[in-house]
Amino acid sequence: MDGFLWALAYVWPAYVTNATPVVAVKLLKRRHPIDMHATFIDGRRLLGDGKTIEGFISGLGFGTLIGFVMMLLIPGLFRWPLEILLITLGAMLGDIAGAFIKRRLGIPHGGPAPILDQLGFLAGSLAVVAATLGLPKWLDIVTIAQLALFTLIMHVATNIFAYLLKIKDRWW
Prior knowledge:
Number of domains: 1
Number of strands: 0
Distance between the termini: 32 Å
Number of helices: 5
Low-confidence stretches: none
Structural class: mainly alpha
Shape: globular
Order of helices and strands: HHHHH
Mean pLDDT: 94
């Protein structure tokens, strides 16, 4: 398999993790904010209403499930089963960190933060793996740059698609 396609398969659980909460929260019609409406020292919400317990659990669960299916279908993709959980947890933490940064910058829930909105989950995913297991030897800087470019384009395209389907309130 081509290096980029192998890398895309490797991070695919992170993509699923990132996309799942939008759909799950819409279907469940329940929202319990992770921050429980707490504010930071700047007086602003820690994360805002967009980061929910339901979204976190559904994203982590479905992304991890997809990762385990992929592990069975593509032997050697992951070095260790726990790696899948690290990829998905990192995706959620990266997205949550993005929300925290946006609130500190005064950007309201749903407000655009180009690059941060599109790449936070991918950066978080790779950072958690790198900090715990180290990145796979085959994942070089060129491939990471390709993943970032692909993610930017795909994120915008899927958001527009979700907006047209009325799953999201905004196209970004």
